[in-house]
Automatic annotation (TrEMBL):
Superkingdom of the source species: Eukaryota
Record's keyword terms, sorted: Membrane, Transmembrane, Transmembrane helix
Protein name: Transferase family protein
Keyword Membrane set for record: yes
Chain ranges passing through the membrane: 183-205
Family annotation (InterPro entries): CAT-like_dom_sf
Length: 449
């Protein structure tokens, strides 16, 4: 399940929320269905299940804002008083560990605010689809029409790879990722998967025995001014590097690339220097290159591909954030060309009935890192005023808590990156070692990066 928790700065009417949930399920019946096994892979049914629950909470908005929403700091700051586990427990009450419902809504009514949690099956939806569903929910609240739902092409036996729109122009210096390279990014088959699971179990055992550092989950706030300053310095650095016949980085890394490169450095800043391999995996939406549904229509879909960048511990430690961010930017460009996306989709279609996992090069303590970017979602634009108990008062989102439940175990270092709805900064919800978190203050110094 993909869970999106929202703290809204007004007390909302539970009856209106429940009624709107039922309206949305009626309009988009796939949300009222269930997830079930039909041999393999999983299958989805449509229905009319309205999985909505509410409860009263004794806290108020100040209880959460005093824990750092929004914080004011000149550099990245760990919000020690803001516990991801406490937030999850507050948002996700009465949610079965293995729920088969496709969609659920939970509302916790605080004294002067509301905590809303939307859950969607990850088999059906990615982060973009989750955001679109919440936006449709807000449209229904406000009495606005929503798009008509269509089944996505792949649920009707059609190949998404045939719907990829060719590029009008292309940069010859950006190498495409072909079928064989995509396939090599994944582990397929019983024996490789078994070896991966044994490696995971071994690392978890070492942590339980105290023989290696455990991973701890934290919320970190990165001020917009700091991220902007690091990116400005990175652009200046990359512009002065000599051009290479075969580019090794892109000269225009995004803010998201900067945050990802910085997070990699926090993880490996205290690890012994070595040439041990490290895989960076990042989800990428392929919606922009797939022909969309007709105007006025929408399909809920998990349209996610995976980017893989092969690095080493020494490389992460030695290279600047600018160079690392440039590498990640170039990898993004390569993986998001229409031909690269088409090759990725064909790999998925050819292996749809098999278990496919990331192909991790190393077998050390942290050989893989994954960062999920939600920085493109404008949660501040969501308006819940139509459900406010005081109709004259606007009801806006003041904090977002993102979670994919299956990723909570902290097997590998991973993170969600989100744009703050207040102040223009960024939130990072991530797993790191205690020593990595303790080194955060040093890595907040722009001159060190």
């Amino acid at each position: 399940m993909v869970f999106t928790g929202l703290i809204i700065d007004a007390r909302l009417d539970v009856n209106i929320l429940r009624r709107t949930t039922a309206e949305l399920v009626k309009a988009w019946p796939v949300l009222g269905g269930k997830l079930y096994r039909k041999d393999r892979p999983w299958a989805l049914s449509t229905g009319s299940i309205v999985d909505f629950e509410s409860r009263e909470g004794h806290q108020d908005l100040a209880y959460w804002t005093q824990r750092g929403i929004p914080p004011s700091a000149p550099r990245p700051t760990i919000m020690d008083k803001l516990s991801p586990q406490e937030l999850d427990d507050t948002f996700m009450f009465n949610v079965p560990a293995k729920t088969t419902n496709v969609f659920l809504v939970r509302a916790t009514m605080l004294r002067d605010a509301t905590m809303l949690c939307f859950g969607l099956s990850h088999h059906l939806a990615d982060g973009t689809a989750s955001y679109d569903v919440i936006r449709a929910y807000c449209d229904l609240l406000a009495g606005r029409p929503i798009a008509a739902l269509l089944l996505p092409p792949d649920s009707q036996g059609k190949r998404l790879s045939d719907r990829v729109t060719p590029a009008k122009t292309s940069d010859p210096s950006v190498r495409r990722i072909g079928y064989a390279e995509h396939l090599a990014n994944f582990t397929i088959g019983l024996w490789p998967v078994l070896l991966l699971l044994v490696s995971v179990a071994w690392n978890l055992l070492l942590r339980r025995l105290g023989l290696q550092e455990d991973l701890e989950e934290r919320y970190v706030y990165l001020p917009a001014e700091w991220v902007g300053a690091v990116r400005k310095r990175a652009l200046e650095t990359l512009s002065m590097l000599p051009a290479d016949p075969q580019p090794r980085w892109d000269s225009q890394p995004t803010k998201n690339n900067i945050i990802n490169a910085w997070f990699l450095k926090t993880i490996y800043s205290t690890v012994a220097r070595s040439n041990a391999p490290v895989d960076f995996y990042g989800p990428l939406s392929y919606r922009p290159v797939v022909a969309p549904p007709p105007p006025g229509h929408y399909w809920i879909h998990n349209s996610i591909g995976l980017l893989r960048e092969k690095l080493t511990v020494a490389q992460i430690q030695q290279e600047s954030v600018a160079t690392l961010a440039g590498r990640l930017r170039l990898a993004t460009l390569r993986y998001t060309t229409p031909s690269s996306i088409q090759a990725y989709l064909r790999v998925c279609e050819d292996h749809a009935g098999r278990r496919v996992l990331p192909n991790i090069q190393g077998r050390g303590t942290t050989p893989m890192v994954m960062v999920t970017p939600w920085t493109g979602f404008d949660f501040s634009a969501l308006d819940f005023s139509a459900a406010s108990s005081a109709p004259s008062r606007p009801a806006q989102v003041v904090f977002v808590n993102a979670l994919v439940r299956e990723m909570r175990e902290g097997v590998w270092p991973s993170a969600f990156t989100l744009k703050s709805v207040q102040g223009g900064g960024y939130w990072l919800r991530g797993w790191n070692t205690p020593s990595g978190w303790r080194n955060l203050d040093r890595l907040g110094d722009i001159d060190v990066l």
